[in-house]
Specification:
Length: about 220
């Protein structure tokens, strides 16, 4: 089983992916982790990717796809996969389909975790963390006992610079621009499934598991 997991920043994709991996014994493959590993191991692919990044250019689709395919081949036997953060563009999606066809495989489902932009903004801009111990807080959903201070050590909480409103809006906008063609592509192939992420974590998990149980039966 190969599942693609799509979702904007702040949607809770990481949490749900983890449930998916644990519950269905799938392997989690993220393009970010994969890229990091290739660079750390100083492979040919890693060096090529690095040269694009050093010059401030995007790593080309073809290179990302080669890297992910190599990673997918390393996963032995019948283990299913969850692809996270990949494919990111329509070009990558097409290349992935081509590569899978060659090895007689296909994508079984694409899960699209949807959360309203306003809600995403509130979730992300409210995040705070403690610079001393790393504890995470939220100004609405997980407030410290004393405003702005860490419960365990009293340090002043900080906000990540890319969690500020302007940056968050831009991140969300970029996400929609990149993924809209991807969503249309998978919809047309009849493998797109929507998950409503505007609700509690447990409810999202329940929706997701019903869907995946159904896939496993088919
Ligand atoms: Zn602390």
């Amino acid at each position: 089983m190969i599942i693609i997991f799509l979702g904007p920043p702040g949607a809770g994709k990481g949490t749900q992916c983890k449930v998916l991996v644990d519950r269905y014994r799938l392997r989690h493959l993220s393009s970010g982790d994969c890229l990091r590993r290739e660079r750390e191991n100083d492979t040919d692919l890693g060096r090529r990717a690095q040269s694009f990044m050093d010059s401030g250019r995007l790593v080309p689709d073809e290179l990302i796809v080669s890297m992910m395919i190599k990673e997918m081949e390393n996963v032995n036997g019948k283990a299913g996969l969850v692809l996270d953060g990949f494919p990111r563009t329509l070009g990558q999606a097409r290349e992935l389909d081509k590569a899978l066809r060659q090895v007689g495989k296909k994508i079984d489902a694409v899960l699209n975790l949807q959360v309203d932009d306003k809600e995403l903004e509130q979730r992300i801009t409210g995040r705070r963390s403690c610079p001393a111990c790393g504890a995470a807080y939220h100004i609405t959903f997980n407030r410290p006992q004393k405003e702005g201070l860490c419960d365990s050590d009293g340090a002043a909480l900080v906000q990540r610079s890319d969690d500020t409103r302007g940056v968050v809006r831009q991140r969300i906008k970029t996400y929609h621009q990149q993924t809209a063609p991807l969503i249309a592509y998978y919809k047309q192939k009849n493998i797109l499934h929507q998950l409503d992420g505007n609700t509690e974590i447990e409810k999202v998990t329940a929706q997701m598991c019903r869907l995946v149980d159904q896939l496993a039966v088919d």
